[in-house]
Model the fold of this input.
Amino acid sequence: MKTMIAYASKSGTAKRCAERLAARIPGSALVDLHREKPDPSGYDQVIVGGSVRIGALHRDAKQYLDGAKPVLLKKRLAIFLCAGNEEGVEKVLENNVDPELRAHAERMVSFGGELNPEHLGGFERMMMKMVTKVANSEKDKLPKLFPERVDALAELFK
Ligand SMILES: Cc1cc2nc3c(=O)[nH]c(=O)nc-3n(C[C@H](O)[C@H](O)[C@H](O)COP(=O)(O)O)c2cc1C
Done:
C-alpha cells in the first residue's frame, strides 16, 4: 500500500504529528502542503491534516482537500486536525471539510494541540494569551496533545 501523509502546519504541531505518523507507516511519503500539493493519484491511501486557527482549518490543507477531492474520494482517506479545543472539533470539520469527503473518510481525528509562542506572530501571540488566560481558570481546557491518537491512526494505516 502506497501512503501519502500531507500536512499543513503553522507553528509546528501538525508537522510533528505528521512526522510521527510517517515514522510509524513504513515507506510513506511525507508532504508539506505549504511547499507542494502533489497529485494523490499514485497513492493507495492518503492522510491529510492541518492545524486550526480561529475555527478555520489551515488554508493549504483546505485547498488541497477541495482541489484533490475527486481523486481523494477514490482513495482510502483519513483526515486529522491539530486543534486546541476538543469541544470544537466536530464544528471545525463540518465547517471546513466537504461533506462527501467527511462521509468518505475512514477516520477523522483531532490529535489535540499545543501552544508554541516562539513560532507565532504578534497578533497570534496576543490571541494565544487570551485563550490561555481563559483556559487557565479551567485547567482541563488548556490545549493538550494526544500522541496515542497519532499512533492509533498509524496502526490503522500501516
Ligand atoms: C491564534 C490561535 C488561534 C487558535 N484558534 C483555535 C481554534 O479556533 N480552535 C482550536 O481548536 N484551536 C485553536 N488554536 C490552537 C491550535 O490549533 C494549536 O495551537 C495547534 O497545536 C497549532 O498547530 P500548528 O503548530 O501545526 O500550527 C489556536 C491557536 C492560536 C495560536
Remarks:
- The pocket of flavin mononucleotide is lined by residues 9-14, 51-55, 82-85, 88, 113-116, 120, 124, 127-128, 143 (CB under 6 Å).
- Strands lie at 3-8, 29-32, 45-53, 56-57, 76-82, 107-110.
- Helices lie at 13-24, 59-67, 69-72, 89-96, 99-104, 122-136, 147-157.
